[in-house]
Amino acid sequence: MTTSLTAGSGGTGSAAARAGSPGSRSAAGGRPARRRTTLARRRSLTGLLLVSPALALVAVFFGAPLCLTVWMSLHRWPLLGRPVWSGLGNYLAIPGDDTFLHSLGYTALYTVVITPLLFLAGLGLAFLVRGRRRGVGVFRTVWFLPYVLGFASAAYLFVWLFDPSVGLVDRVLDDVGLTARPVQWMNSAGTATAAVVVMVVWKVVGFQMLLLMAGLQSIPEEIDEAALVDGSGPLSTLVRITLPLLRRTMALVLVFSVSGSLLAFEQFFIMTGGGPGNQTLTIVNWIYNSSFVNFQLGYGAALSVVLLVVLAAVNAVQLLLLRERD
Amino acid sequence: MRAAAAVPGRWPRAAGLRRTLALLAALCALAAAAGCGTGTEAERGRPVRLTMWARSDQASFMGKVVRGFNRTHRSVHVDLTLIPTGNYVQKLGVGVAGGSGPDLASIDLVYVPFFASSGVLADLSSRVRSLPHLNRLSRAHVRQGTYRGQRYALPFTGDASVLYYNTELFAKAGLDPDQPPRNWREFADAARRISALGKGRYGYHFSGRCGGCNVFTLSPFVWASGGRLVGRAGGAERPAVGTDPEVYRALRMYRTLWRQGAMPPQAAADTGSQSLSLFGGGRVGMYASGAFALSELHHSYPKLKFKVAPIPGRRGGSSSFTGGDDIAITSNSAHKDAAWRFLRWAVRADVQRRYVGQSDVVPVRTDVALGPYSRRGATYAVLARALAHGRTVRSRQENALFNASTSPWSTMIARAVFGPGRGAVRGATRSAQADMVNILSRG
């Protein structure tokens, strides 16, 4: 019973198990058993062959650069000239680097602000477009469309929109009567961050909507009906039925948006340039500056390794918290 | 009839095609030959083609210099490429590292020690020894191009920071327009008296959020008083901003002027873009800048009455930051001999007078600068003397320590001058010192 269960779970290993257990039982018929094992071996070999392009891609485009990054981080590695071994020197310099510590704090703040905003907006839109109504496809498309745009082009679009002299935002605020004179969006950390947040929500919310919508549609209607019959109100259905059943999708969406925010670069690089006075400098922006403005590639690599560890830890905690307990 | 016309019509076209193909093949062969036998091009009568990179903000006169060279040289031809100023160091670094760099590079002299120390510039020592007039070239430029006793670059274009002052505002404030401030006391006094005129007029402006501007304009105040920004300890460079008392005093003086309202409110946020219009518009009595501001001030503000003076020290004396470019040959250039001809030509007295000194650039030859260039007027004479006695910040990490917007130097100035609290200056210099030591410790 147990063997059949594990075999049923799929994958190349299960094929071997399925072929192996009957083979040992029918020891009398040696020939078919051998043929089956060779068949099994061939099948697993085929499986390996089929995934090998993916493995090669991972090795070449992920494994090798990762190893190189770690190797670089242990050197003083100027853009030009010869690298010199420096052991943990670059890592030891990190606690004394105020710019990095500040960028760490700012990136965390940005993540804490943008993640719930994106999630709530995405969930709201997902509820609006989940049913099969006339014209719902149009709205799905319209809200998803900005996601197809590159981050850089979207950022440039918003640089123009938030420009105090030719931009649309200040003009509209002025015409509506909310402001008396154009707001210099990029001159203070608060307004600059607000501008970036607006851009990112506009750009990414469609993707979150799509994921959450798929999650909502996978909840069987019977469960909702049963809840209705049991006398559950809309709010209690949402909190006690829908959201718990949406757990996996929520984990996915949150991991996406937290990782994306911790790695934020283009939107800030283009819209604020880290200014005013480094106040909106994100971690990746500082890694970029260290490597390609200050030419300290080894130090940039060390910061990247630290960021990788932080990212892995945050995602691990997140997945742990959102784990299905049953 | 129609068929007869069509057939002959077809053949010449095909022949034309064949001819084009043959021509293309010949061109390819030529290109291949050129690629192999580059050294002998000049002997075959074709000029050696050199590529040269310069920053885009020097577009106006770099083109003239290169055209002047190409007009007078038959065997060498220089193709100039302008690179956006903000990306220049990065592009040059990546280009040379990747083997796609130019033969000649005109480099902002503050970055020359970095390039010289990293092996991407050709060693010119033996060639430079043959130059008869090395001692007549700007000392700061030559020093920047020297690394461990070897020469990697020659002076090319010069600039010098000086104090611009508005003579009308000086007169209105009861100051003598012919007597610019000679020490910090007179300087601060002039700033306060001009600010006292009111009506949105202020004594002194500086760009509070621009590291590069302040290397150019604040460090002379420190140097003229006997202080320094970077020292050396045991063969390695060691920052001095947190230990040198004159850095502290200069920042204190700036802070006092700011607190007393002798600086315009724009100073705190200016990234360098506002200083010229504030001074040109007659709203600021004094600001420090270089020769690069001259023609724009003349063109955009023809009614402005101003003079220039040396940047004063605390108890007298003066100093200046030497700006401009060095020119170097990259180490993987295949035409070093031809490139050297351009360098030798560029530092000739007549070239420096004719092409370099005519623009917003000071000649790097002191005999030209102090001679014909100075005779053009008092402003030019002050600039020339400032260049002849100027200094630079010499560091392999100049950008990370000083010029970059994320640099400890930029942060220190913003905190020390505009920051809250009583111990702002002391705190700012101390943490800048720690940050600079940290930057030099990593890589």
CATH C-level category of the largest domain in chain A: Mainly Alpha
Total number of helices of chain A: 15
According to DSSP, the number of beta strands of chain A is 2
Q: Stretches of chain A where pLDDT falls below 50 for ≥5 residues? A: 1-29
Beta-strand level of the residues of chain A, as a percent range?
under 5%
What overall geometry of chain A do the principal axes of the alpha carbons give? flat
Secondary-structure arrangement, i.e. CATH architecture of the largest domain in chain B: 3-Layer(aba) Sandwich
Please tell me what the overall shape of chain B is.
globular
Spatially, the strands of the biggest sheet of chain A line up as 1-2
What structural class do you assign from the helix and strand content of chain A?
A: mainly alpha
**Largest sheet report of chain A:** 2 strands, antiparallel
Portion of residues in helices of chain B? 40-55%
Query: Unreliable segments of chain B (pLDDT under 50, ≥5 consecutive)?
Result: 1-17, 27-42
Mean of pLDDT of chain A? 86
Please give a structural write-up.
- The complex is a heterodimer of chains A (326) and B (443).
- Chain A folds into two domains: 2-55; 97-321, MetI-like (MetI-like fold), CATH 1.10.3720.10.
- Chain A is built from 15 helices and two strands.
- Chain A has helices at residues 2-8, 12-25, 30-73, 89-93, 98-129, 136-148, 151-161, 168-176, 189-217, 221-229, 234-245, 247-262, 266-271, 283-292, 297-321, and strands spanning 75-76, 84-85.
- Chain A has a two-stranded antiparallel ribbon.
- The two termini of chain A are 22 Å apart.
- Residues 1-29 of chain A have low confidence and may be disordered.
- Chain B is an alpha+beta fold.
- Chain B has two domains: 14-160 and 323-389, D-Maltodextrin-Binding Protein, domain 2 (3-Layer(aba) Sandwich), CATH 3.40.190.10; 162-319 and 406-441, Periplasmic binding protein-like II (D-Maltodextrin-Binding Protein, domain 2), CATH 3.40.190.
- Chain B has helices at residues 2-36, 59-72, 88-97, 112-117, 125-129, 139-144, 167-172, 184-195, 211-217, 219-224, 245-259, 275-280, 294-300, 336-346, 349-356, 366-373, 378-388, 398-403, 408-418, 424-441; strands spanning 48-55, 76-83, 104-108, 146-147, 150-151, 154-160, 162-166, 202-205, 230-233, 236-239, 284-289, 306-309, 311-312, 318-319, 322-329.
- The longest helix of chain B is centred in the N-terminal third of the chain and has 35 residues, at 2-36.
- In chain B, the strands form five sheets. In chain B, strands 2-1-3-15-6 form a five-stranded mixed beta sheet. Chain B has a four-stranded mixed beta sheet with strand order 8-11-7-12. A two-stranded antiparallel ribbon of chain B has the order 4-5.
- Chain B is globular and about 70 Å long.
- In chain B, helix 9 packs across helix 19 (408-418) and helix 19 (408-418) packs antiparallel against helix 20.
- The A-B interface holds A 75-82, 84, 86, 89-90, 93, 96-99, 187, 273-278, 281, 286, 289, 292-299, 302 and B 90, 93-94, 96-97, 114-115, 117-120, 209, 269, 271, 397, 399-400, 404-406, 410-411, 414, 431, 434-435, 438-439, 441-443.
